[in-house]
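ok so for the tutorial part 2 we go from a plain amino acid sequence to predicted structure tokens. step 1 is just haveing the sequence, like this:
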Amino acid sequence: MNSHERSSLAVHPAAGTTRSSDMQVFLKEFLRAPVRTASVVPSSPALAERMIAPLLGRSQVDRPPVVVELGPGTGAFTAALQAAAPGMRYLGVEVNPAMADHLAARFPGIDLLRGPASELSDALSQRGLPAVDLVVSGLPWQAFAGQAGTELVSAIAASLAPSGAYTQFTYTWTRWAPPGRRQHRTLRQHFGRVDLSSTVWANLPPAVVYTATRPLPVDDPAAAAG
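step 2 — the prediction. this is what the tokens look like for a chain of 226 residues:
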């Protein structure tokens, strides 16, 4: 099976997988690396629905949507994406080995890059994927720290189709922290529009979603202004 075939597979959850097993993986990884994991439980269906909303509102086109998921964890957003667009061309990027193993078992045949999000551009190029319609990110704020974080947001913007969208969630209690404010500024430097959702109270902890659209060219004055 070549990379093109792999990336166009519909994602099917393995039988017997439960939210309980997802929670066990999340808790174990949180205890092992709390800063990198950032939560003790997977995201809720309510948050997943908000994160994939741009895909649900996507206009009809003559090709399957191309979706990238950064930090899919145990697959809360992956499952929602599969239900919304079973014919999508999907690429997941997961650096945590335990979560990558869990994800691969839950969704047999998934196209999964086991590595950091900084490898996104190369991964898309190697697979010959066209411009991305939606980037869904479950990465913690730590992933966007410093220059590496700015470069990652720039790479996400560059990977998107002009009509594409990038969604990133944060917990309400971290939104006003310095990393959260920095991330919001970075989004505004690379996208012409950044919308903030209402609070998703059904998530634990409650969360909000940034939806960034209208990716700016890398040489756009607004992007350079920083």
